[in-house]
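Same chain as my last thread, 343 residues:
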Amino acid sequence: MTSNQSAPGTPAIPRIPLPPLLASPCDPAIAQALLNAFTSSGFLYLCDLEPVIPASLLTAVFSHSISFFARPQDEKDRLAWTIPDADRGYSRMGLERLSVGKTKEEVDADRGGEGEDMKESFEIGREDGVHENRWLEGEGWEGDREGQAFGKVMRCFFEKCHDVHIVLMRTVAVAMGLLPTFFDDYIGEKFNTLRLLHYPALPRGSFEGGRKRAGAHYDYGSITLLFQDMCGGLQVEQPGGGFTDVDPIAGTVVVNAGDLLARWSNGLIRSTKHRVVGPPKRNEQVGGANSHPPRYSIAYFCAPDPDRLIDALPGTWEEKLGGKRYDAVQCGHYLLERLRATY
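reply #2:
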């Protein structure tokens, strides 16, 4: 296991290989390394993904994402995101304002001086027969071969990411002294979201006055997988304050813990604030003399099943541990309230 370089005085973000986690159960030592990452910075790099997510599939996902966002605006708007309950489809620039706020009023106060997020996105959820995904298929999309290929690739990728989700939750279970399959019954419904993200190229000066591509926020679910291009700009808040870069590393996926995993662990695991700013100066030349380069990333937000009650796990709050730090919450309700505040 190796570590990514980090700014002086800040904890390194570790690099953990996926293959040893696939054993059943996994090695307790590497499980503890993963837990240590979640309890320190809240972030890690997962590497050697090929056994579950082939490089060819990831290349195809990015290629189809880039092609989707290059479509005419009216085509993307036909697949528009509609309501938080569904959380599917295309979100144009400015529709969402990521924030640490938990209500619209708090979001307004937090983001008032920053302006809107400078990104567009496309959300894909589970195929549950209740809320339909907004595919480039069916009536009005006849003959759109790229759209048909897009749907096929994204459906496959959704399932592969869920496979990684299962592995990571089993690893957390081992590290916390639970049965490896403890979380299996909590995540069987695949209540997850695949989000394609495009941060368009911007004129020089766009980040003056504190503007950001995505405002500082915490992720809402249990675990997030973030696949990045090589542009850069992701930053994570350090335990002592201030932000440090989470540089793109080829062949890895950034993994971070979210609010519900923090609540499950009674605060042992950190849900860490992060944001997307302009690209580091070393990457600026990619955009040319007059613009900042575009950034593409792909997030897979993992969550427990919607009806599940999330309460402090055994061994995290009893006796001398000081009791429960959080009230129990229903997963679906918690996520819905957060979406309603930011859209």
